[in-house]
């Protein structure tokens, strides 16, 4: 594994000011955020009910913590197997369908939603489901990739998949903030080790640092919530799954607030 | 903007001192318990204990071409250490050495030839880890970058992730970029619940 000096400079050099890079839209791109709404792209496959449940429940937790959250979902079928019925759901978490067929159209949908909605605080959040294959087909930067949240288990195959996805994102959008949430780990150390592997591999293979967004618990409450289409935080607020979801939501909101402070 | 340059690694003693400070880059929780220890017939540069209590003999090649001989010495030191682990446990329990874990070796060198790499692979996991080092200057400070070889056998137990380079040797001490930290307020007790089998997320 030959490396030259240029490969290792990132160990020493100051990173590009991330916040500056993040908020600056790529050339020719429309900003997918306003000063009072943050957009996070969440790659979720069209039949990936587990990750969809995580995204939806994180949105609910954001609302429980005082923010507002909406999910924009480009789904091929209606009703989608991924989400509860599209509408304003529990605690005002909205699910907005989109007819977008590619990343550019999805960006337009997101922008339309942002422009047509009155945002009341910096904690307003739009989670956008991005079909993972759309990222690979994108030909250039997209503001939807400014901030991407990946869910991965600690299994090697899933970590490799997340690494590939990270590479696809930063290839097209070098200033992306790529967040990683580990799910399915049996212990905190397992999740920490999985994230460490991904962080190191990402730095080595893509030259890009990922950011940790906690861990999630795959316990029965998650699957019950999927079946019942009820948010875990409301159905089982004291469960490990609910605590973990809240922790991830706090990390997201914390970063939004930190970004707002500049 | 700090300027970077590859520099000669310095004397054997300087490399050892530098390597000792930078072992955290390997992410194995290594605690150095002795330096320049006389083994069977030659010295062990650093003797360390990993986070599982295993003894680790660290040998350093200060120049290219020394590593094939170093590998032979390392294997001998490993056997020598294995014979003494029980004594060390009895004499110094505070070191928290695990008497039931075989010692292993880490070789540090500017580079490794094909023969050494193949030999290390053949020895198998938990025997030897090959680590290449690179001396760099960052502004007024110097540091060693440690890089485990990708084809070098790794310890079977996945090491706890630790930040990469933490500091350089001279003052002022600039911080090198550590790997991103894992963030979560959850502890193991928060994860305990009735579990369902994890379905494979479908694309």
Structure in words:
The complex is a heterodimer of chains A (262) and B (203). Chain A has helices at 5-8, 18-23, 49-64, 103-116, 132-137, 156-172, 188-206, 220-228, 232-235, 240-261, and strands at 38-43, 68-74, 94-98, 124-130, 147-153, 177-183, 211-216. In chain A, the strands form two sheets. In chain A, strands 1-4-2-3 form a four-stranded parallel sheet, sandwiched between helices. Chain A has a three-stranded parallel sheet with strand order 5-6-7, with helices on both faces. The model of chain A is unreliable at 1-35 (pLDDT under 50). Chain A starts with a helix and ends with a helix. In chain A, 50% of the residues are buried. Chain A is an alpha/beta fold. Chain A is 45% helix and 17% strand. The radius of gyration of chain A is 18 Å and the shape is globular. Chain B has 203 residues and is an alpha/beta fold. Helix content of chain B is 25%, strand content 24%. Chain B is built from four helices and seven strands. Chain B has helices spanning 12-22, 67-91, 114-123, 188-191; strands at residues 4-6, 31-38, 43-49, 55-60, 104-109, 128-138, 141-148. In chain B, strand 2 (31-38) and strand 3 (43-49) form a beta hairpin. The longest helix of chain B is centred in the middle third of the chain and has 25 residues, at 67-91. Residues 156-176 of chain B have low confidence and may be disordered. At the A-B interface, helix 3, helix 7, strand 7, helix 8 and helix 10 of A face strand 1, strand 6, strand 7 and helix 4 of B.
């Amino acid at each position: 594994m030959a490396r030259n000096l240029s490969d290792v400079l990132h160990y020493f050099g100051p990173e590009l000011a991330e916040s500056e890079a993040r908020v600056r839209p790529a050339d020719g791109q429309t900003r997918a955020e306003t000063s009072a709404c943050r957009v996070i792209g969440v790659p979720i496959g069209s039949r990936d009910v587990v990750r969809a449940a995580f995204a939806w429940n994180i949105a609910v937790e954001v609302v429980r913590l005082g923010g507002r959250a909406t999910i924009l979902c480009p789904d091929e079928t209606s009703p989608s197997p991924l989400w509860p019925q599209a509408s304003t759901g529990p605690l005002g978490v909205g699910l907005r369908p989109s007819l977008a067929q590619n990343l550019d159209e999805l960006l337009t949908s997101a922008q339309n939603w942002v422009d047509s909605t009155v945002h009341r605080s910096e904690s307003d959040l739009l989670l956008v489901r991005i079909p993972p294959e759309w990222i690979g087909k994108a030909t250039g930067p997209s503001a939807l990739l400014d901030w991407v949240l990946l869910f991965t288990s600690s299994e090697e195959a899933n970590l490799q998949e997340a690494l590939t996805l990270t590479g696809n994102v930063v290839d097209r959008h070098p200033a992306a903030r790529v967040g990683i949430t580990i799910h399915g780990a049996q212990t905190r150390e397992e999740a920490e080790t999985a994230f460490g592997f991904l962080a190191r591999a990402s730095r080595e293979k893509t030259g890009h640092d990922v950011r940790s967004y906690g861990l999630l618990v795959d316990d029965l409450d998650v699957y019950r919530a999927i079946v019942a289409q009820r948010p875990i935080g409301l159905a089982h607020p004291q469960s490990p799954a609910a605590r973990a979801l809240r922790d991830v939501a706090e990390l997201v909101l914390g970063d939004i607030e930190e970004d707002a402070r500049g | 903007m700090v300027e970077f340059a590859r520099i000669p690694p310095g004397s054997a003693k300087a490399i050892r001192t530098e390597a000792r400070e930078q072992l955290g880059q390997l992410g194995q929780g290594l605690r150095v318990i002795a330096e320049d220890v006389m083994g069977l017939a030659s010295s062990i540069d650093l003797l360390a204990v990993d986070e599982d209590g295993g003894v680790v003999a660290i040998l350093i090649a200060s120049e290219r071409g020394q590593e094939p001989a170093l590998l032979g010495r390392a294997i001998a030191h490993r056997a020598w250490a294995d014979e003494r682990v029980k004594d060390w446990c009895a004499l110094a329990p505070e070191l928290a050495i695990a008497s039931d874990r075989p010692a292993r070796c880490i070789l540090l060198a500017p580079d490794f030839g094909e023969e050494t790499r193949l030999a290390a692979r053949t020895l198998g996991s938990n025997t030897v880890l090959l680590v290449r080092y690179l001396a760099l200057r960052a502004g007024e400070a110097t540091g060693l970058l440690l890089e485990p070889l990708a084809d070098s056998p790794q310890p079977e137990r996945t090491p706890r992730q630790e930040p990469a380079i933490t500091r350089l040797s001279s003052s002022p001490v600039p911080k090198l970029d550590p790997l991103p930290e894992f963030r979560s307020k959850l502890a193991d007790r928060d994860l305990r619940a009735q579990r369902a089998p994890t379905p494979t997320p479908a694309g």
